[in-house]
Structures are given as structure tokens and as C-alpha cells.
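Follow-up to my post from last week.
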Amino acid sequence: MRILVVEDDPKIGRFVIEALKQAGFAVDHADNGDDGLHLTLSAPYDLAIIDIMLPGLGGLELIGELRSRKVMIPVIILSARRSVDDRIAGLLRGGDDYMTKPFYLSELLVRIHALIRRSTNVVEPTRLIVNELVLDLQSREVRRGGQNLALQAREFSLLELLMRNVGRPVSKTMILERLWDYNFDPQTNVVDVLVCRLRNKIDHEFTNKMIHTIRGVGYVLKSP
Amino acid sequence: MRILVVEDDPKIGRFVIEALKQAGFAVDHADNGDDGLHLTLSAPYDLAIIDIMLPGLGGLELIGELRSRKVMIPVIILSARRSVDDRIAGLLRGGDDYMTKPFYLSELLVRIHALIRRSTNVVEPTRLIVNELVLDLQSREVRRGGQNLALQAREFSLLELLMRNVGRPVSKTMILERLWDYNFDPQTNVVDVLVCRLRNKIDHEFTNKMIHTIRGVGYVLKSP
DNA sequence: ACCAAATCGTATGCTTTCCGAAAGGACACG
DNA sequence: CGTGTCCTTTCGGAAAGCATACGATTTGGT
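User reply:
Got it. Predicted complex:
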């Protein structure tokens, strides 16, 4: 899940970004409206969190631009004021939400999940299960056949991605985009290495391998 | 949820009222005991926050009046003094609480929610138990395997937070937000230090460690 | 009111753990 | 059989976490 945060206050920005990363999202950040617009147009985000008060292109204008260009990602608006401005109300579609500062992070997270659920029409499960492989998103635990596996952050995200696409191949580019910052261009074989590391933990001591390579395309997770 | 604040110090009063409003409560304010009494008798509040030192009718007398008229709303008493006065103790019912100034806003909010939960007959456990670890919310005592542990206020809160989320990781940002005030400057390692201190008391002399680190995310409490 | 003790945020090094980079071998496919 | 893709291992810098020390502030007792 990729989230764009458009917020100029460095303190709040850092705070929110840090929290979202810890919650397992891929997060990009813009500290003004113009950069925000460019990013949204160039990368596929699942959600945007936009402050109203921005230098240059304001939050409202930004949203207006997006809507007029038919970019329909759900938006959470951050505002310092308590009451909902009419202009804000006008811009918000059904898939949007509104929060006043200060807010509790837990509340922000709840709303994010609600919005994503609504916009994708999918009930977000707390655990992913593929055959004997179980990944618990809440406790961040991974088990294969009763055995607990200690994955690190990146490996965990990769496995999550693979499990959400059981049977469907996931391309290397896809993995790159989902797990690393958008403008990260590795000249190296990071993805290969990551897959290798994940395999060592998931497949190595099992006869039935679950991660398969599709040459020239990417990888698939298959239940044996 | 309607809350009445009876407080004559304008600075503290504004501070608390603002915070409560932002937390989503409807707040009324009286700056002396007599007005406080009239308001309580004329409007149905879910909770009252009453300062002890008041001009005119004092906080204690106000509570006494309320109780003798069978107005049974839960009360949070604010006092400048550290020790619990006997007269206060006598007036407090089960549904009341007590705080000394200065206090952390976050703590006030926690107590408000606890009180409202209690008074609305949602069962609120008085003690949290995770395996051999017992935390008593009322007496504020913590024991692990019969052994009594002396925790600081912050350590206590942290342990409470962890115990309420057994098995679920609690992110550092979450801890910051819950134990300190909103967007407290996270440039330091307060959380690390606090966790370290708590560990020394909870885990240090035990073989089964209960607090585990999840790199890049936060901490979990696990029963061994 | 004063002093000792306790508390708690900050600063600072140390240790551990990640994870990207690189390189060479293995394998698949034409 | 040759080329290109993929796998695996190793290495080192960087980051995250841990522990300790210090000092400002608060607390509590005389």
C-alpha cells in the first residue's frame, strides 16, 4: 500500500511518515502542493494525506487539480480548523475523509484502513493464508506448518505482496515499486538478493517449494 | 459526551478545555464552585473535572453538595497537592478519580475515558494479567511472579499500553503519542530509554523475556 | 526553607542487525 | 555452446537499538 503525504510542517510530517512506515505502508512525501501534484500524477498511490495549508499550490487547489484530471485516489484532508469548510465539503467525494489537527495516530490509521477498504471494496483480512503458510499482519508473525519464521521488514513485505497475488506472477518492477521508494533506481540486483533471502527462510528446509521463478517475468507464489 | 470543567485558573482552564474540545467532547466551564453547582444541577453531564481550590464554594464542598443531592456523575479532582487528603478520599466514590497538578494531558484523557467507560457500565478490568505479570490499575501495583516491582509513572503507563496490546506490536510513534503530548519532538531517544528502564525491572532478572523488539516497528509484549 | 533523594529527558558511545553492492557461479534458453 | 538471466555468498557502511552517564527539575523530609 503506497501513501503520499503532502505536509509542509516538518515536525508533523516526520511524525506521520514515521508512523505510517511503522504500520507497514510505503510512504512518499512532498512538502508543497506542486511537488505533491507531480508525484500523484507520476506514481500510483493508494491514498493521499494532504494538509490544507501549504506553501504555493494549496491543499484545496491540489485536490481540485487532481479531481479535474480524473485522478480518483482517496484523500484524507488535514486541517487545523475544527469546522468543515464548505469548500472542503464540496471537493470531498464519497471515498474521502477529513481530520483536524491535532489527532490521534490510532484514529488516522483507522480511517486509512476504512478508506482503503471502501475504495477497493475488499475486506482487509488480518491474516493471509496460503496452504500451510500463514502471515499475520497484526502481530507480524509468519508461520509455515507450525514453525515460526523470523522475517525482517523487507522480507515480510515481499511475502505479503506474493501472498496477496497467489498464483499470479509478480514482476520484479512491481516488487521494486511496492517495496522501495518510488524514485529508487538500483543499478543492482537487490530484488534477486531479497528473494533469495526470503527463500532461505520460507522454502529452504521444505521439500515443497512455494516461490517459483518465471524467467524474464518475475516470481509466483504457488501452493504445493 | 458532555464534560463540565470547574477551574478558576484561566490558563489551566483554557488549556484543558481546548484539549477536551479537540478530543471531541462537549465542554462547559465554570470558574467558581457556585456556578459549577448550578450547571451540574441544570444540565446532564457525563463527567465533571473539578479543581479543589476555588473561590467561594470550594471543590470539596461542591462535591459534597452534589453527593448529598444524589447527583452521581463521576468526578475527576484536580489538586495542587501531592498527597491525597483524607477529606478527599472520603468523598470519592468508586467512579471517581484524582489528579495532581501539573499533569500530562494524555494522562487526563486516559482517565476520562476510563471513568466514562466505568460509569457507563462497560466492564473495565481493574487489573491486567498477562501470564505471570499482573498490573493493578487501581492500586497501581505491578507484580511478576509474586515479586513486587516498583515502576515509575511513565514506566507504568508504558507497561499498561503494552499489556493492553499483548501480541500486537506497539510502534514507537504510538508510544510517543500515548505517553507524551501530541507531536512531542521525537528527536531524542526517550522511548528507547524508557523501554530500557522498563526492561530492567520487568525482564532483567528473568530468563523468559516478555518485551521483544521488532526492528523498524516497535515493541511487543509476548507471554512466554 | 533547605538539602538529599528520586525522577526523567538528553547526550553519547557501543553493539547488533540490516541491507545494498559487487562478484562469480549456475542454470535456462535459444 | 554461448549469452543472458538468475542464484548465492560475502563484505562493509549505515542505521537502529541498547546501555550508561549526566544534569535539570521535582519531591519529600526535616
